[in-house]
Each structure stands twice: as structure tokens, then as C-alpha cells.
Amino acid sequence: MAELSQTDLDGIYAFAVKLGKDAGALLWKTAQLRMGDDAASAAEKDHVEKENAVDLVTETDENVEAFIKEQIAQKYPSHKFVGEESYSKGASRDYLIDDEPTWCVDPIDGTVNYIHLFPMFCVSVAFIYKSKPVIGVINAPFLRQFFSSCSGRGAWLNETQPLPLVRNPVPPMPENAPKGCVFSCEWGKDRRDQPDGNMHRKIESFVNMAAEIGGRDGRGGMVHGMRSLGSATLDLAYVAMGSFDIWWEGGCWEWDVAAGIAILNEAGGLITTANPPQDEATCTIEEVKLGSRLYLAIRAAGPSSTETGRQSQERTVREVWRRVRNLDYSRPGA
Ligand code: LIP
Q1: Percentage of the chain surpassing pLDDT 70?
Q2: Averaged over 252-269, what is the pLDDT?
Q3: CA-CA 20 to 30 A from 39: which of 84, 171, 187, 262?
Q4: So where does Mg(2+) get bound (predicted)?
Q5: Residue list for the binding site for Mg(2+)
């Protein structure tokens, strides 16, 4: 495998930015069709169920992915491609990303939002090299928000606003985090009403984070607010902005998070596992495994008089782990 230089990466980044814009324009055109009342609009309004009644796909998911795949195949025929819709059609649920140059794409992240025309939907394009997302492009056409980053080139909103938004100085994490934080989380697609299953463990964790300090047997977090955008990609982009302090989710896939992880890393954020390790109070905080389906993200943080920014991020991770339950989203090869 040929080594990619910064110049190579810059070229791939410029291509990814144009691809994100073109795919976003396609998505916006069909979104407007959904607002219409002619025959074309009617056809556009269909959707199909995949794994269950909340795992949905539209013709636009398929078309936008096919467009992106074709553009990449023309420009970089040797690069690998992992896309939500082409992957979902296969039987395997293996983790396919290795050190080879790979594009990881979600044509519409927030498909349910798109179907209901709730503006939190976007195109997500990531370039992965040596198993790490090094380029991320997210285009949310309804919001007119375009997020992008390239390793060594910073993270940006609409190509002009550097991330995080508050940066002179970047504030440390709140002293009693998660108290004082905006906590973002998602219900996800596993809605099985099983005692102590994923859904009930999420609910218990959400209530812990919301409850008053001292409540819930000492697990109350008294967060400033709870938010659910219905899009892991935009949740991560908003952590990269610093608008969300924390994002916690289990169940989404590499295409839902790869671009967001690239952008948050370049903005100075921290991403690790959603599941509290045995020795959560003392263990080393490992970088997240892209295919783990378990994610905990913390915004960029600056130093305080007593801590480095990283120390305040790690303190926050441990305080979140103390309040959330382990989730089960195992898969072969991750
Ligand atoms: C969505 C994720 C979201 C998750 C949803 C779904 P999709 O991706 O972005 O975080 O909670 O269940 O997985 O299906 O819209 O690409």
C-alpha cells in the first residue's frame, strides 16, 4: 500500500468537499420534491422498511449512494468503498475497514428525519486511511450547514468558521460535569421491550444523566439539557462545534460516525467507548474502535488552573461511565 503524503491528502480532501456539495445538492432537490404535490413528489414520498419498522430506506438513499460510489470509482478506482445501503443488502455484518484507503459513506444520515422533513438529515462522507478517519465531510442542506476537516488542516463549518465555535479560549469541561453540560443521546432502532435489554438500559442511563445531583443512588447528573437529533453524524458535528458537550450512543454503524469522528478529532474532541470498562475510575481511556457500534464523544476542552483540557475530558468520560449502563451491540470482526 502506497504511503499517502499531506499533498495526497489535500487532493483527496478537495475531491471529498466537492463530492459532499454535489451529493448535498441532490439530496436537497429530492427534499424539495417531497414538499411538492405532483406525481414525481408522490413517487419520492415512498420508503421501505429494512431490519424493522424504524429502520427505513428511500429511493434517494439508494440514488445518492450510487452517485457517490460512481464518482469515487472514477477518481480513485483502487480505493475501497463501504456505504450503508450497499452494505445493508449483504448478509454479512462483518467489519470491513482495514488499513487500505477506504471511503465510508452514509448517503442520508437521519433517514427518518428526511422522511418527516425534520431538518436534521445530511450526507456523510469519510475517507479512512490506516483504519483512521482522516477526512470528514458532512452536508446538511436543509440547515445550510457544511462541516469538513482533513487531518492537519483543521475542522470547519461552512469552510470559513473554525471549530470549535468558542475558542478564545476553548473552555474547560465544567467542574462538576456532567452537571452543566448539554448531553446528546439517541433512542436508536433496537426497540425490543426486553427486561434489562438495550432500550431499557438506555432509558435508565438517560434518567441518571437528567436526575438531580444525589438522586438515582448518587448517579444523578443534573445535565443542563438532553438532546436527540436522530442523526449520529450531526450529533458528532454539534460536539465538534462545542454546542453539545457530550454525545453517547450504542447501535449505530461506522458510516453513521466516521466523518463525524474525523471532524471531532481535528477539532480537539475525544471519542471513546460508550460502555463503562470494569475499572472505569482508573483505566486508560482508549480511542474508540470505529466498528464497535458504541460511542462516547466529548467536546474539545481548554486548560483550567488545575487541569489540562485532556484531563477535564477524561474526568467527564469517567463521570459519564459511572452513570450509564453497558449496551450490547456485538458483531463479528469488530
Ligand atoms: C441513524 C443514526 C442515529 C441512530 C438511528 C439511525 P440512519 O442513522 O444516525 O444516530 O439513532 O437509529 O441509525 O439510519 O438515519 O442512517
Answers
A1: 98
A2: 98
A3: 84
A4: 84, 106, 108-109, 256
A5: 84, 106, 108-109, 256
Residue type for 95, please? Answer: Y
The answer, yes or no, to whether any atom of ligand 1 lies below 6 A from the CB of 109, is yes
Return the SS3 of 104.
strand
User: Is 247 part of a structural domain of the chain?
Assistant: yes
pLDDT digits 0-9 by tens, 103-139: 999 999 999 999 999 999 999 999 999 999 999 999 9
| Contacts (Cβ under 8 Å, ≥6 apart) of 260 | 124, 136, 138, 232, 233, 234, 235, 236, 237, 239, 240, 297
Whether residues 129 and 259 share a domain: the answer is no
Pick the atom of ligand 1 nearest to 233's CA.
Answer: 9
- Residue 224 belongs to domain with CATH number: 3.40.190.80
Q: Which domain holds residue 302?
A: 182-321
Kind plus residue range of the DSSP H or E element containing 203: helix 198-210
On whether the pTM is more than 0.90, the answer is yes
C-alpha cell recorded at residue 17? 468537499
Q: Is the CB of 256 under 6 A from ligand 1?
A: yes
**Cell numbers of 178, please?**
456532567
- Ligand 1 in reach of 250 Cβ (< 6 A): no
